[in-house]
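Something for you to look into today, if you have time. Could you write out one complete protein record for me, on any chain you like? Leave the record below and I will have a look.
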Amino acid sequence: MFGLSELAVVLIVVIAVLAAKKLPELTRSAGTSARILKAEARAAGERPDQAGDQAAPRVVQGEVVTPAGQESRPPSSGR
């Protein structure tokens, strides 16, 4: 009858025929993932904190906004 190699070839052909509709989507997804991974690896290599240089912490200025209908209270001292 059939040997193991012939069954493997038939199985691969059947999978390829059944998965033909999804193949373009899978390759597009793999390409997008590869681009994202490459960009993240490049960005990780450009970070100054990995090169031993300590970057100064950034301070973001903002304001406290209370929801409507609530009074603003000064922050508690934790006691």
Helices lie at 4-18, 23-46. The chain has a mean pLDDT of 79. The CA atoms of residues 68 and 74 lie 17 Å apart. Residues 23-46 form the longest helix (24 residues).
